[in-house]
Amino acid sequence: MAKYARAACWQECVRRTPPRRSTSLDPYLEYLRQRWEQGEHTATVLHQEIVAKGYGGHYQRVKMAIAPLRRGLPIDTPRERPPSPRQVARWITTTPPKRGLHPTEALRRLLEHCPELDQTHTLVGQFAAMLDACDAAPLPAWLDQLAASGLSALASLAKAIREDQPAVVQGITTPFNSGANEGRITDLKLQKRIMAGRAGVPLLRHRVVLMAHLRRRYP
Q: How far is C-alpha 185 from the chain's CA centre?
């Protein structure tokens, strides 16, 4: 139940289909495809025909196997595991040269089939360009695009940024940020969870100091 309580959209609640595995039906897939092209679209009849040829599986498996044919897809196309929302978010926010070949191709296919995601990808790229150039001049027009996108999440983001716009402008145009402090806080929380309450403050302090020393030595 916690999974559904944390979900931000319905896609996060969908059970992901694992990649296709070989089955006892595989030797008969070509025959099913041929019979489909000949005009036989009844799963019961097709099941009876391949049973006569030696197939020992259930009718339901034949029905599922010919389902792609009803949608105009190849019968034996392996199904690729869909990416999680977290993976897609990481692909979008990663600099293209650092993305890798497979994520780049997978993201391209996703953008082709989802105009909303394509729009989000474009807007993220525009904001990244502002950060790279340290130029906040396009920010007001960019916020207008977010508000007019028709996507509630982006419109909500635009509203939140406008409420603290001067600080966002400073973050874009100056080299100063709270990244170092956020990193120290993350280190502290990580060490606390690793220890799981089994040691006192002296050991926690020692480990935090050691972590800070390692960060300075290996930036």
A: 27
Residue 68 near residue 33, CB atoms below 8 Å? no
Tell me the pLDDT tens digit for each residue of 115-169: 999 999 999 999 999 999 999 999 999 999 999 999 899 999 999 999 999 989 9
- Dist CA 36 CA 72 (whole Å): 11
Secondary structure (H, E, C), the chain: CHHHHHCCCHHHHCCCCCCCCCCCCHHHHHHHHHHHHCCCCCHHHHHHHHHHCCCCCCHHHHHHHCHHHHCCCCCCCCCCCCCCHHHHHHHHHCCHHHCCHHHHHHHHHHHHHCHHHHHHHHHHHHHHHHHHHCCCCCHHHHHHHHHCCCCHHHHHHHHHHHHCHHHHHHHHHCCCCCHHHHHHHHHHHHHHHHHCCCCCHHHHHHHHHHHHHHHHHCC
**53: phi then psi, degrees, rounded to nearest 5:** -95, 0
Looking at per-residue confidence, does 157 or 80 come out higher?
157
